[in-house]
Write a structure and sequence with these properties.
about 350 residues, alpha/beta, TIM Barrel, 2 domains, nine-stranded mixed sheet, three-stranded antiparallel sheet, 15 strands, about 25% strand, globular
């Protein structure tokens, strides 16, 4: 059961691959750059966990393999995990990738493993901006990765990050235009955020500026939508028919199962998360122990409130009654009517958190 009436139904699986070549300066995810020796045991544990969970799952409509860097592991290891799941017809299977890792052989291996789409972390095409983010790939690797994915029939999503201290508006425009020139199926553009404990957090002179990020959001919105992409979530645009099914499941409070360390799941109003480190996850699975580290259950009102907060971020918007009449009037410039629902206007997307605070 989803939190929003009329929301898409389905069941997703999130598979976490925590291995990286190095950690980017802004990253606070559960990733490690010194644990590659665990890859074999870890992926075997994920496969065993998938086999354990499979009889409990409905047909899976989407799988998202994230990280970390999933392309650090051999495609066949991912395929063995996916093969244990009750994959439904026309299911979406997305794998995140670094551009420098994706050649024709690896892309082909991912296709054989069941992948239907690839999400490539471009972030920027400007070398000094990549350095400011702690990224190490060559911008020239991006078109090569896109060509490799396309050659084996994978849909292509390209991800960008804006707001690095070293990035000018002209730099950002160059990145947006370069991505659009590659004619992807999906574009994501995320504002750089400062996460506690990261190198970025420790360097206050590198923190992003709100006004600068607002200008860059307006730029990407204008150019991506002019190129024929549909906006469907604050940071995401897709060509018709190419929305990310798995992420839509998150934004509609759908249900999904967690596989891997630090992975989160949601079912029947219960959120759960697995033990954080790969060692603890491997030990649990090899010992036949449930790897769940904790959970929480939201009551009906909390679920409805959260469902509205998430839906506000999307082109589904919120029911009119989610805002008091006075708030609807005061926030009129930030919202547009769509039948019996209210959807953020383009300017409203910049102030989504302000609108969310008024939700009933």
């Amino acid at each position: 059961m989803t939190g929003e009436p009329g929301a898409p139904h389905g069941h997703g699986v999130y598979l976490h691959v925590p291995f990286c070549r190095h950690r980017c300066d802004y990253c606070a995810f559960a990733t490690w750059s010194d644990r590659d020796g665990l890859i074999g045991r870890y992926m075997a544990a994920c496969r065993a966990d998938a086999a354990r969970l499979a009889p409990l799952l409905p047909p899976v409509t989407s799988v998202f393999v994230g990280g970390g860097t999933p392309t650090r592991v051999a495609p066949e290891l991912i395929g063995r995990v996916v093969a244990e799941l009750p994959i439904g017809p026309d299911a979406e299977v997305t794998v995140e990738a670094n551009p420098e890792d994706l050649d024709v052989d690896r892309a082909g291996g991912l296709r054989v493993a069941g992948a239907t789409r690839i999400s490539i972390g471009v972030q920027s095409v400007v070398p000094h901006v990549l350095r400011a983010l702690g990224r190490r790939h060559d911008p020239e690797s991006v078109p090569r990765a896109v060509a490799a994915a396309r050659s084996v029939g994978l849909a292509v999503g390209l991800d960008l990050i804006y707001g690095a201290a070293a990035e000018t508006v002209a730099d950002w425009a160059a990145s947006v235009d370069a991505v659009l020139a590659l004619r992807p199926d999906h574009v994501s553009a995320y504002a750089l955020t400062v996460e506690q404990g990261t190198p970025l957090a420790a360097a206050r002179d590198r923190h992003p500026d709100d006004d600068d990020q607002a200008d860059k959001y307006e730029l990407v919105t204008e150019r991506v939508e002019a190129a024929g992409f549909e906006w469907y979530e604050i940071s995401n645009w897709a060509r018709p028919g190419q929305r990310c099914v798995h992420n839509v499941l998150y934004w509609t409070m759908g249900e999904y199962t967690a596989i891997g360390c630090a992975a989160h799941g949601h079912r029947n109003g219960r959120r759960s998360w697995n033990v954080r480190s790969p060692e603890r996850y491997i030990d649990a699975i090899e010992a036949g122990v449930d790897p769940t580290a904790g959970d929480e259950v939201l009551d009906r009102d909390a679920r409805r409130r959260e469902a509205r907060q998430l839906s506000l971020r999307t082109d589904r918007g919120i029911p009119v009654e989610a805002l008091a009449p006075g708030d609807r009037s005061e926030l009129a410039a930030l919202l547009e009517a769509s039948g019996d629902r209210l959807v953020l206007s383009r300017s409203g997307r910049l102030l989504a958190n302000e609108v969310a605070l008024r939700l009933r």
